[in-house]
Amino acid sequence: MIRNVLLCDDNPDNLFLLHTILEEFGYHVDIASNGEEVLNRIEVEIPDLLILDLFMPGMNGYDVARFIRKHPSFKSLPVLLITTSSSSRITKKCRNYVNEVVEKPIDLEVLHAKVLYLEAKCCHN
Questions:
Q1: Which end of the chain is more exposed for a tag (fewer CB within 10 A), N or C?
Q2: Checking phi first, is residue 26 left (phi over 0); if not, alpha (psi -120 to 50) or beta?
Q3: For 16-56, what is each residue's pLDDT tens digit?
């Protein structure tokens, strides 16, 4: 069951909005503002779900997801990527490392549906 979500976005407004919405959905949400912070946090405690923005300075969402998939301890962590890009090239590249993609502007019903889908797919196998 997904209870603890780690949310990463470099935009404070996006973090606030998504944090608020995910808590309304019933999840406990921790936040990170960059990719390096995500990696430091998951070393301490692995969340049930990681939601990443794709475009961030420094280590972007793609780099974080790629690192996670190659690390044995985090390999099965469900990753949902949020992006403003609908480019099939970017999405195809990311698909190798993430479970789901949500495009901005975020449709909250779609976000919730994808989180529930990941819960059913990743947490009940």
A1: C
A2: left
A3: 999 999 999 999 999 999 999 999 999 999 999 999 999 89
Which amino acid, residue 61? G
Q: What is the distance between the alpha carbons of residues 111 and 100, in angstroms, rounded to a whole number?
A: 10
Cα–Cα dist 16/18, whole Å:
6
Q: Which amino acid is at 19?
A: H
**pLDDT score of 15:** 93
Long-range contacts from 91-96, C-beta under 8 angstroms, 24+ separation: 93/62, 94/54, 94/61, 94/62, 94/65, 96/66, 96/69
